[in-house]
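User: Could you check the structure of this?
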Amino acid sequence: MTDYTAPVRDTRFVRDEVFDYPALWQSLSGCEEATPDLIEAVVDAMATFCEEELAPLNQSGDEEGCTWTKDGVTTPSGFKEAYKAYIESGWAGLTSPEEYGGQALPPSMESILNEFAGSANWAWSMYPFLAKGARATILAHGNQDLIDAYVPKMVEGRWTGTMCLTEAHCGTDLGLLRTKAEANTDGSYSLSGSKMFISSGDHDMVENIVHIVIARLPDAPSGTKGISLFLVPKYLPGADDSLSENGVSCGSIEHKMGINGNATCVINFDGATGFLLGELNRGLNCMFTFMNTARIGTAIQGIAHGELALQNATKYARERLQMRSLSGPKNPEGPADPIIVHPDVRRMLLTIKSLTEGNRLLAHYLSSFLDITKLSEDESERQRAEDLLALLTPIAKGFMTESGFECANHGVQVFGGHGYISEWGMEQNMRDARIAMIYEGTNGIQALDLLGRKVLASKAKLLGGFVKEVSAWCEADSASSIKAERLPALTAAIAQWQSLTQEIGMKALQNPEEVGAASFDYLMYSGYVVLAYLWLRAAEVAEAKLAGGGEDKDFYTAKLETTRFYFDRILPRLQTLAATISVGADSLMTMDESRFVVGLEID
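Assistant: Sure, the predicted structure tokens are below.
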């Protein structure tokens, strides 16, 4: 069984010391209640809830899984009780408007709750967290009647929500969807069709589930231009708080590799009553409210699995005795040395640590821009934050989930054979992590979005905005020796990033396949550079804290040591990526599909 302790100290370092959230909130409207004392109490309470209520259910939930019958889905033992504790503690409405029953804390507070709960029990955490994306979509695109009817119940936690996009035949290509919507005389719509891979699509923890569904009207244009967005509840609410059947049912649940405690459903709509969100045939645009929320949440999944791997693999490596150190015994009174003394084990542990803590920096860097876009009264600041979010969201989703899976994989390896069996929980952590690279648009789609839509289509304007931010920090006066020591590597990486961007753009003018050929490696390259910048910012702060004396010397020293490891051992991966980006599309695209498998009869 995995152990989990919420990383409260590191979270406070990132938010308060590196990014100075208290000062940020002082500059924003609506943050008057977010005092340091209140935030500290909230974070401590989050940690306690996740450690005591959710973590003990992680392995048992995986082993038991969900149960489907024609009457619906039953969640694993203890999940329903944990959800009751969740809503009683007010977590469902943490950042929601007070007028609908929420606590109105800044949006970035969700990143802390998402990580702590996700590390403790990712499968459970998806039930309430998808509801927050559904709620945000209704608030952004619903009329006031819909908002009043649905949002307060969702803020309270009595109702949850889902995102219903995918169908069996279309996957990511949503323009191929077949779910139909037909107008009713009362202004509502009748929806018919089936959606699949619907996380948290049905369960027994709440009285109602609100589905956010894309569908097409009979006279709609073909492709994505003909998609509309609808709110479709499992049960229709009545004026007297009663609920009635609505032609929504769970046809089955998937038998899958991981997150077995979460119900991944086929949801059938049989003439179900739905209500339009936004404008007709503009549904995909509206859906991005939900999808961008989900992408950032999925990015945090990479931290969650990395943190679980780091804590458990480190503990195991300190206790597991095997062989002697090559430089002489480190545990002379014992039969062997703990495996943490061996360089290869340290390579894996430091890789997990540098990527996980670096990803935490990225998550909260990103979250600071969420706060600005929602709460700043300065239009230019909001636009700056929106531009940075546009560039960094696909990087975060793609890079953080790829590196999170790498960390979970190293976690298995540190345990050796014990990592491969279920008793220790490392194989579950790896299984649970794998889906994150597929969720919310596969990482190949994220890469195309980053390179094609965000960088090249903007003529590198969005990339230039981020480079400007980094350059300003690089040029600022500093007494930091580690900044001076590592700054040349960072500035060289940024220059190469810009050069590679220009190179791809020139090649794409001759062959558009060059964008797809380079995009995934470009995304990973981007992620490593962003983390290098953030690690150096963190190291500068840690060095200043050490120079000032005081407590937590080991904590700050570890930040400097991890930064050096990242620059020495992780950042050099850029050169392989640069080489594969520059080589172009030819070796990818020249092989005829008939030659992928030769010598076998494959239709």
